[in-house]
């Protein structure tokens, strides 16, 4: 059955067409370019960028992946760890910053990595300043705020939101721990200036790393439907009152709109005059479909 859904649910490719996705492929807002420059300048000022001149590799930093709602099932952790290890990442740590789970393990791990670094020469300066880097909307600010709650019992220091681009510049140092004294630098999310593969762009958009309107909510919803069917995640059927799984995104969005009362009045021009009819709001239904997935309400799916 899975192969059948995979073969039939390719409407998103037809929607994009041969030249589609140009906005996604070239999406590199000004705040990304500015943030990248600021991050590099900040590293240079703090003397933490010698490997660029010497051609050496920097000390490895931990990859603190935040397991957000709808990201991936726990059974996938070993597969993800193996894949990252093949890419050279040895210190991968999964956290849930909504529940502050496993956040306490980060400071000891970072402290050990810094102390074991060949460039660790800070006998007169005991504080550490760590830069948090990642793609947009992955939870960098949430991680900082979670660490402050756990170690300092303090509130938010970085603004968070469900859309990319909330952090638009490299911020000042934010203290996250007293002993050892540790500061973090929040940074804007950065993507590659060009995304060569349209499907990669759709995956990023579905996760909220690219603003929805640049791709199109209905295009993202179409890809989401294909993904759910491919992984046999059919919880959307009961949630939106469908009789059975469906690979027609228009039918699914119409059912969502009717089920949730998301309709609007549209003027139709006829030969006898204008007629006002009530029509399903497909865009609003697509937004509901996408946001439900991001909240984990349609099941957990690994896109890669």
UniProtKB/TrEMBL annotation:
Keywords of the record: GTP-binding, Nucleotide-binding
Domain of life of the organism encoding this protein: Eukaryota
SUPFAM superfamilies registered for this protein in UniProt: P-loop containing nucleoside triphosphate hydrolases
Bias (Acidic residues) ranges: 54-64
Keyword Protease part of the UniProt annotation: no
Segments forming domain G: 130-192
Record region (Disordered): 34-73
InterPro entries: GTP-bd, GTP-bd_ortho_bundle_sf, P-loop_NTPase
Claim: tRNA-binding is one of the keywords in the record: no
Protein name per Swiss-Prot or TrEMBL: G domain-containing protein
